[in-house]
Amino acid sequence: MTGPIPPHFGTVEYWEGETRDLEEQLEVIRREDETGPAMAEVADLPAESGPEEPLSNSDYFWDWDSD
Predict the structure, then answer these.
(1) Among 27, 50, 31, 49, which residue's Cα sits nearest to residue 39?
(2) How many angstroms separate the CA atoms of 46 and 50, rounded?
(3) Can you tell me whether residue 42 is helix, strand or coil?
(4) Can you tell me the distance from the alpha carbon of 35 to that of 47, in angstroms, rounded to the nearest whole number?
(5) Cβ partners under 8 Å of residue 62, min gap 6
(6) How many C-alpha atoms does 1 have within 13 Å on its Cβ side?
(7) How confident is the model at residue 5, as a pLDDT?
(8) What is the pLDDT of residues 27-42, one digit of tens each?
(9) Gap between the Cα atoms of 35 and 16, Å rounded
(10) Residues of the chain falling short of pLDDT 70
(11) How far, CA to CA in Å, does 60 sit from each of 52, 53, 54, 57, 63?
(12) Which of 3, 25, 31, 28 is CA-nearest to residue 17?
């Protein structure tokens, strides 16, 4: 057990908020699926600079001594 459950967890208001947030996220996903990503998001993407170098074990593990 990780600790007590917060008192607001089981309330109707909590689950209404969670449901509303998920419905909003689903609407964004559906809209982007139809039209592609929003223009602001496209503008924020980095320019293509060629193929990426593959990651090594030391990229994944901070204590990796050699590849």
Answers:
(1) 31
(2) 11
(3) helix
(4) 21
(5) none
(6) 3
(7) 74
(8) 998 988 777 765 555 5
(9) 29
(10) 1-2, 37-48, 66-67
(11) 16, 14, 11, 5, 9
(12) 25
Chain length of the chain: 67
Copy the structure tokens of residue 34. Answer: 């139809």
Instruction: Kindly report whether the global pTM for this prediction surpasses the value 0.70.
Output: no
CA distance 21 to 27: 10
Residue 57 three-state SS: helix
DSSP assignment string, 1-35: --SPPPTTTTSHHHHHHHHHHHHHHHHHHHHHHHH
Output DSSP code: residue 63.
T
Structure token digits, residue 8: 């607001």
